[in-house]
Amino acid sequence: MRTILLRLFALIGLAGLAAVGCGTGTAASGGKTVRVTVGYQSKTISTVNAGTLLRALGLFEQRLAEIGRRTGTRYQVTWQDYEAGAPITTQMLAGKVDIGSMGDYPLLVNGSKTREFADARTELVAITGYNLRGALNMVLVPPSSPARRLGDLAGKKISTSFSSTAHGMLVRALAQAGLAPGSVQLVHHPPSVGASALQSGGVDALSQFAAWPGLLVHRGQARVLYDGADVNQPSLLGIVVRKAYTQEHPEVTEAFLAAVIDATRYLHEHPLQAAQTVAQATGLPPEVVYLYNGPNGLVTFDPTIKPVLREALERDIPFLKSLGALQDLDLDQFVNDSYLRKAYGAAYDTEVRSTVNPARITGTDPLSHRPVDDPATASEAWFDGEGATVPAANPTWLLRLLKASGGKKLRAAYVPDAATGTRWFADKAVWVDDPAAGPDAHLLPFTTLAGAQRYIDAHPGARVVDYATALKAA
């Protein structure tokens, strides 16, 4: 009876998704056509190598076509776009999605909810991307908010998506700030609804995952109050497959993962083109996509399931259990990198041990003539109409580059937070002028006022300056 009720609840959840459409997710009779349905989140751009970019490049279909030419089997791919991971899980429970990508908390909930059903049980087979410090999640406030640090939100209303990675980051951050769980009012909203509530004044703050923080700040509709990097816990996204489907059609999962590797390589080799492709498919500004997905971006794109990421998932399980979001989950049964190992070949063991971002800003600073090779300081300018970005050795030299640009139209400039390394828009950063840092490195960017203040407290003589003043001081 309990199984029947759980199935019923899952199917009821599909009613609200009717507008999205769905595929069969099963093999057609006769074995001549194999259908596969992929659930993805187009605006969660930390999963583009398993979703938006992968779909736009047609790499999965190409891999399946190669198999079809050898075997005579036809493959039909259906792509379904969702705003969050929870509805993908609902569809997988109903057998309507075979492969899905989502963030770390939804991944764990997915594994827990599906494990009771043999035909719906899922496995985590790959990662799409990650940030080792957790900077994919941020807390935002309106630009005019008086709040300067997270503690200023005591007694305020905060929107987040319950059981999401942004929710988990927020709870951890509140605890670190010494705020009891009941000291703020948490409101559950899908990301787009929460963003609207922040703009209308319906909530005082918003805790969300990529790309919402970058998008709202880029539009001038919010500023960052708290950078998830301050929690210093990895945030990651990954790929789950229905185990029963994969056992019946292992070649499909292997082809999908091989295509993800292809898309990741393309993203690393053609970052501007990839950003523009994703922007065209999603309606997101390419400058925002490039903030996350470009070299030294907020997302490290790497499909391998690294030990440090598995450990992060292990730490997340108790929190999700405390929320009642999952009963239990055995990661040894849930995590299965055997298909990915086969797709990678001998390179897997080397790749899985590395946490260095394969996509890095490189080159020579055109003004200082210094090599640009340190991710902690490397900065970048994107001028309109140019097919490549211009590197800068550090944020001070970037500002000098912008001053010396001769009136070129700037699309965006990117700098790393001086403390956390979080990549951010130069014109949206909080700048500190520290004369003691030396003439070529005295202008330091931070994502938050709180981060800038911590630096000032430790460096007498340093002061906050606005962006225009920082440009002049360069």
How would you characterize this protein structure?
This protein is α+β, with helices and mostly antiparallel strands. It folds into three domains: 2-130 and 234-351, 3-Layer(aba) Sandwich (D-Maltodextrin-Binding Protein, domain 2); 137-230, D-Maltodextrin-Binding Protein, domain 2, CATH 3.40.190; 379-473, Beta-Lactamase. 39% of the residues lie in helices and 20% in strands. The chain contains 19 helices and 18 strands. The protein has helices at 2-13, 52-57, 59-71, 86-93, 104-114, 165-176, 191-200, 212-218, 243-248, 250-269, 271-282, 286-293, 307-323, 331-334, 338-344, 348-351, 395-403, 449-458, 467-473, and strands spanning 33-40, 74-81, 99-103, 122-131, 137-141, 157-160, 185-188, 205-209, 223-227, 235-242, 300-301, 379-383, 390-392, 410-416, 423-425, 430-433, 443-446, 463-465. Strands 2-1-3-10-4-11 form a six-stranded mixed beta sheet, with helices on both faces. It has a five-stranded mixed beta sheet with strand order 7-6-8-5-9, with helices on both faces. It has a four-stranded antiparallel beta sheet with strand order 13-12-14-15. Helix 5 crosses helix 13. The longest helix has 20 residues, at 250-269. The chain starts with a helix and ends with a helix. Residues 1-30 have low confidence and may be disordered. InterPro entries: Solute-binding_3/MltF_N, SsuA/THI5. Belongs to the bacterial solute-binding protein SsuA/TauA family. It holds the Pfam family NMT1. Residues 47-270 form the Solute-binding protein family 3/N-terminal domain. This is ABC transporter substrate-binding protein.
